[in-house]
Design brief:
elongated; 5-stranded mixed beta sheet; 2Fe-2S; electron transfer activity; 249 residues; two-stranded antiparallel ribbon; single chain; 4Fe-4S; 7 strands; Fumarate Reductase Iron-sulfur Protein, Chain B, domain 2
Length: 249
């Protein structure tokens, strides 16, 4: 398979970036986007040239490390798949792929396709934890939680924090990410003590760093974990609950 690639090259956060053209004559349809970049980099290294920098880790779709744009879409052309699981099987021979970093003011470029996503970490630092009594772990049956609620919480806990939702949103909002965390933690038996404080602090940090929700739902369309768009409602719901209860829990 022959492909024409336009790959973003940027030496550092304060450098001017540009697209670099690369022609690949021997791509394989079963390659992932990351494997395609590996293949390109191997060729550059053999020629004594600098390879493109991009982030990856597990390559199993669970770590959230990989993140880039392919033809303007976070992760790749397929819906709800991380970059490491995006195959070239549906890419036509002779196609052009434009590969670049996540585009968001909250995600400054570090180098090439690597961006700084610590803004998501700062949201979690404001309340992404639970309070427990130190000591011996309690028996499992002392924490009552029905199966349906547990499954609903786990569905939202599946968020891998990749930041695709932010890159997809024209306003650079992180409401799907933050809402998923608020839904998950609000349903758990532990952590009730800081529920109100968590909502206030996490949402304040969200609105300080990220844009407002666009209401279009692009975020759910690209989320590799399949977080439902309804998670966004938790932003106002949990904040309103904290305001009217006027309590930390």
């Amino acid at each position: 398979m022959k492909l024409h690639l336009e790959i973003w090259r940027q030496a550092g956060p304060y450098s001017e970036g540009h697209f670099e053209s690369i022609n690949v004559d021997d791509a394989v349809s079963q390659m992932s986007v990351l494997e395609l970049l590996d293949h390109v980099n191997n060729g550059l290294i053999e020629e004594g040239k600098e390879p493109f920098a991009f982030a990856s880790d597990c390559r199993e779709g669970i770590c959230g490390t990989c993140g880039l744009m392919v033809n303007g879409r976070p992760h790749g052309l397929e819906k709800n798949q991380p970059a490491c699981q995006q195959r070239l099987v549906n890419v036509a021979d002779g196609s052009t792929l434009k590969i670049e970093p996540f585009r968001s003011a909250a995600f400054p470029v570090i180098k090439d396709m690597i961006v700084d996503r610590s803004a998501l970490d700062r949201v979690m630092q404001q309340g992404g934890y639970v309070s427990i009594n130190a000591g011996t772990a309690p028996d499992a049956d002392t924490l009552h939680m029905d199966h349906k609620t547990a499954e609903f919480a786990l569905d939202h806990a599946a968020c891998i924090g990749c930041g695709a939702c932010v890159a997809a949103c024209p306003n650079g909002a992180a409401h799907l990410f933050t809402g998923a965390k608020l839904v998950h933690l609000s349903l758990m038996p532990l952590g009730k003590e800081e529920r109100g404080r968590r909502a206030r602090d996490m949402v304040d940090q969200l609105e300080t760093t990220f844009g407002h929700c666009s209401l279009y739902g692009e975020c759910a369309d690209v989320c590799p974990a399949g977080i439902p768009l309804t998670a966004v409602a938790a932003i106002n719901k949990e904040r309103a609950r904290a305001f009217f209860s006027n309590k930390d829990h």
